[in-house]
Design goal:
Length: about 140
């Protein structure tokens, strides 16, 4: 085979150092993994709907500012702990990740009091979370990485 400019570029790129069969295997693996995002619209529980009405979310699967909700935890991709091994503080709602999975539900009347307590962070655990998230404890209760 000729040593064309394209072939030289391929060989000097990071991709050129990987065996082509490994690239094909990685691509096939990615194509066969189940999606983490829901395939269509998701239904939210009543409390999550109430939360999102104030917190300005228009989509239940929008990770720009917040964790996605309305997701069936049993269908998430590898990298998560099994539902049976979750800390009891992690409350799946009908098997789904909802706002109350990680957050303490509150009424508008006590929101200000709880929010003011957050000014003492990180000396105290966040009063709006179901468990302490210092050192990412809450996140790592579900996420393996």
């Amino acid at each position: 085979m000729k040593n064309t400019p394209l072939r030289r570029l391929w060989k000097t790129s990071p991709w050129g150092k990987i065996h082509p069969l490994m690239l094909i295997a990685a691509l096939l693996l990615l194509l066969t993994l189940p999606p983490c995002a829901p395939a269509g619209p998701v239904s939210l529980d009543r409390d999550s709907t109430k939360c999102l009405s104030c917190h300005g979310k228009t989509s239940s699967f929008d990770t720009a500012d917040h964790h996605p909700v309305g997701i069936d935890y049993r269908r998430v991709t590898p990298g998560f702990k099994s539902p049976a091994s979750l800390d009891p503080a992690i409350g799946l709602i009908n098997g789904k990740i909802e706002c109350a999975t990680c957050h303490i539900p509150y009424e508008e009347s006590n929101h200000r009091t709880l929010a003011e307590k957050r000014s003492a962070l990180p000396a105290i655990a966040d009063p709006l979370l179901t468990m302490d998230n210092r050192k990412s404890q809450l996140c790592l209760a579900c996420h393996s990485k």
